[in-house]
Amino acid sequence: MAEPVAISEAEAHVMQVLWQHSPRDADEVFTALPDCVDWQVATVKTLLNRLLKKGAVRAQKVGRRYFYAPVLKRDQWLLQESTTLLRRLFGGRVAPLVAHLNQQRRLSSGDLRDLRKLLGVGTQVP
Amino acid sequence: MAEPVAISEAEAHVMQVLWQHSPRDADEVFTALPDCVDWQVATVKTLLNRLLKKGAVRAQKVGRRYFYAPVLKRDQWLLQESTTLLRRLFGGRVAPLVAHLNQQRRLSSGDLRDLRKLLGVGTQVP
DNA sequence: ACGTTGAGATTACGGTTGTAATCGTACGGA
DNA sequence: TCCGTACGATTACAACCGTAATCTCAACGT
């Protein structure tokens, strides 16, 4: 049934690099982290262990070290986080979010174009 | 400058009732909470105090009790939470979120209609 | 004047999170 | 064979969170 594994902010950074490419060992995860994340290796190991305990990643021992791979799927995580936020803030629907962003002038013309394209609005006069 | 006052989940519930109507005292907040939130009055008072300390609400003493009102604006909060999530998950843009929901078949026809209306797609043949 | 009571203030306490340092130990090199 | 080293495992620790109970003191009623 897959209970909703809750991933913290920091843990999510680790997942991101594992989603990018896996399996990877702790050190590889460490070096693959974006520059904006400035941790010690020890921190990465802690997070990997927490993720293991949560069942969000799995580890395979090769020699003396472990290689980690995601168990939680990225799509599942995206959906979970998104719907949680939409529920908390906008009654679970996405249109009010877009409306809000629009009202607050936070939609670029690029955003609008992408959205229109998505919604099949492209069916105009060729 | 208004630093981004961070509101926790539980605190947000309290803010919601204050945004609905304010000022209110602790007891009024307590009774105005939705049924799904099942707290003791003490809990509400704790949260109100934490919000006070964070500067998210302000209190005015009348007789022996305090009446609370939001300082943090709802719109500001909505925008903050939304953009934070969009940044964390979708590179800060909203179209990929909608695309994802769509792919995962999480957009109802009502959602689609609302979105189209919002995006001025309504300009069709009358 | 005094006690009751009800409001806010203080304290509690276990869990999670961010961020590591340190410990223990198995492998590989000398 | 012995030692250093490089990993994972264990431990640390403060802040924040959810969730309250208890304490304290001022005001109201008698």
3D architecture notes:
The structure is a homodimer of 126-residue chains. Chain A is mostly helical. Chain A has a two-stranded antiparallel sheet. The first copy, chain A, is elongated, with a radius of gyration of 19 Å. The model of chain A is unreliable at 122-126 (pLDDT under 50). Chain A has helices at 9-20, 26-32, 41-54, 74-90, 95-103, 109-118, and strands at residues 57-62, 65-70. Chain A has six helices and two strands; from the N terminus they run H-H-H-E-E-H-H-H. In chain A, helix 2 packs across helix 3. The interface between A and B is medium-sized, with 33 and 33 residues. The structure holds a DNA duplex (30 and 30 nucleotides).
Keywords:
homodimer, 126 residues, mainly alpha, two-stranded antiparallel sheet, 6 helices, DNA-binding
In what order do the strands lie side by side in the largest sheet of chain A?
1-2
Secondary structural class of chain A: mainly alpha
Q: Poorly predicted ranges of chain A (pLDDT <50, ≥5 residues)? A: 122-126
**Outline of chain A, from the CA principal axes?**
elongated
List the secondary-structure elements of chain A in sequence, H or E: HHHEEHHH
The average pLDDT value of chain A, as a whole number, equals: 92
Multimerization state: homodimer
- What's the number of extended β-strand segments of chain A? 2
- Biggest interface: A-B, 33 and 33 residues
Strand content of chain A: 5-15%
Percent helix of chain A: 40-55%
Note the total helix count of chain A.
Answer: 6
Distance between the termini of chain A: 47 Å
> For the report, how would you describe the main beta sheet of chain A?
2 strands, antiparallel
